[in-house]
Amino acid sequence: MDILVVIGRILFSAIFIRSGVQHFTRVAMMSPYAGAKGVPATKFMVRLTGAMMFVGGISVLLGAYVHIGAALLVIFLIPTAIIMHNYWTLTDPMARANDQAHFIKDLALAGAALLIWYFGSEPLSLVP
Questions:
Q1: Which is nearest to 121 in space by CA: 57, 33, 35?
Q2: In this structure, is residue 127 part of a structural domain?
Q3: Spatial separation of the C-alpha atoms in residues 19 and 57, rounded to whole Å
Q4: Does 27 fall in a domain?
Q5: In this structure, is residue 43 part of a structural domain?
Q6: Is residue 47 part of a domain?
Q7: How many structural domains does the chain have?
Q8: Where do the H-state alpha helices sit in 1-92?
Q9: What is the pTM of this model?
């Protein structure tokens, strides 16, 4: 059954590692969207959140310093859900439904990160 924990870590971390890389390679594309949502210093914030996702994802994947990695992900996910996916402010039904799905997804991922923070990442962790 230990393999299920490892598979879970791989599946969970993949979205953050990929998104973290995209935040560095697509700063020019992501910055205007962040600015439209009221985020200050958009290029810096896109890079900062990219680093948080990448480091958090790698931490969970490898099972190294998972308390720090999971905390980075929670610190990223909660404000992102509220600021970037504020569906309650939208009037267009399609945009509202899309942002609501992303809001709920971010909260669910934050919940999973909290569970990883609490339970750790054993077995097969680099740093128990």
A1: 57
A2: no
A3: 10
A4: yes
A5: yes
A6: yes
A7: 1
A8: 2-25, 27-36, 42-62, 66-84
A9: 0.92
